UniProtKB/TrEMBL annotation:
Residues 1-31 form the signal peptide. SUPFAM superfamilies: Cysteine proteinases (SSF54001). Keywords: Coiled coil, Hydrolase, Protease, Signal, Thiol protease. This is NlpC/P60 family protein.
């Protein structure tokens, strides 16, 4: 007969899956795409299986944690889009005002030419200069003056036309910026809603993990503290990669904590951020984002320091050490350790060249 805690765990895992599925179906194309989280298998009947059950549930929680971190990254990016659009609006509004002021200034000059030509009856033509002149030199003098006036008139008209066009262009750009700001704000709100759903699912899974943890014996809990033995003595191809490996190995035994990036507790991607950060290499925060960092490496050609990923988008990342070994922060209840390369690795990236 199943115990009540185990039933709740199974129900919790199914609920978490349902929440994520609902978010995936309803999310816009620009939103973060969630990977599916499989439901837990039938509950174990003995203590040894309880540890396996805990590790399976913890792995699901780790995946939910990575999804929540990715949603937070996406939300932050969209908030940056909103800020950029609002800054554009402010600058373009100033451009509109400046252009409109210039147009008004140039229109005054253009109006003066119009008044002189059409209101006062003056005729700025060479024919009028010839007919009204008293000598050839007078004609030449008046023609030269007319040329200057015509040039000034054309310049004023060009300035006025340019200012009007600049005002119209700036006005359109300001309108576009307002539309971008609204679209970015709406997208950020949708992502925030998705983030809350992921966090709720993670919190539910964490509560279920606590229930399973209560069924583990002291010996089983001790097994989770195993550091995995000595790391292989295989030098990395670059100084940065070697330093990142050395930093990660110096953290063996530190606990896995969701969302942690050090210095004494980590999640899987947080360990990579911390280790490579100490080596002077900046990495994105999540496993999925790190999956695009550096350069792609065939799995047949991986070297110490390369990052290996499970899932696409990734929900877990480890650092290769050589000889089929990795260093990783596995999952909740566990510690940073040396272990074999996971079975589900799908690709690798080299972030220190």
């Amino acid at each position: 007969m199943q115990s009540q805690p185990v039933k709740r765990v199974v129900a919790g895992a199914l609920t978490a899956t349902a929440v994520i599925t609902a978010v995936c179906v309803g999310a816009p194309a620009s939103a973060v795409t969630l990977t599916s989280v499989p439901a837990l298998q039938a509950p174990p009947t003995n203590s040894a299986d309880a540890l396996a059950q805990y590790r399976a549930a913890a792995a699901q929680a780790e995946q939910l944690n990575e999804e929540a971190l990715r949603a937070q990254e996406d939300f932050n990016a969209k908030q940056a889009d909103v800020a950029k659009a609002n800054a554009d609006i402010a600058g373009l509004t100033q451009q509109v005002q400046t252009a409109q002021a210039q147009a008004a200034q140039f229109q005054t000059v253009v109006d003066k030419f119009a008044d002189a030509s059409f209101v006062s009856g003056a005729q700025y033509t060479k024919l009028s200069a010839l007919l009204s002149g008293t000598s050839a030199q007078d004609f030449l003098d008046r023609s030269s003056a007319l040329a200057v006036l015509a040039n000034d008139k054309n310049k004023a008209l060009a300035q006025y036309t340019g200012a009007v066009q600049a005002a119209a262009t700036a006005q359109q750009q300001a309108t576009d910026a307002r539309n971008r700001a609204q679209a970015a704000s709406d997208a950020a709100q949708q992502t925030l809603n998705d983030l809350h759903a992921r966090q709720d699912a993670l919190n539910k899974q964490v509560n279920d993990l606590k229930q399973i943890s209560g069924r583990l014996t002291a010996a089983e809990k001790a097994l989770q503290q195993d550091k995995g033995g000595a790391a292989p003595n295989v030098p990395a191809p670059t100084a940065a990669a070697q330093q990142a490996i050395d930093v990660a190995l110096s953290k063996l035994g530190d606990p896995y904590v969701w969302g942690a990036t050090g210095p004494d507790q980590f999640d899987c991607s947080g360990l990579m951020v911390y280790s490579y950060g100490k080596a002077g290499v900046s990495l994105p925060r999540t496993a999925a984002s790190q999956q695009s960092a550096g350069v792609a490496v065939p799995l047949s050609a991986i070297q110490p320091g390369d990052l290996l990923f499970e899932g696409s988008p990734a929900y877990h990342v480890v650092m290769y050490l050589g000889d089929g070994k990795v260093v990783q922060a596995p999952t909740s209840g566990d510690v940073v350790k040396v272990s074999a390369v996971p079975n589900n690795v799908v690709n690798a990236r080299r972030v220190a060249t």
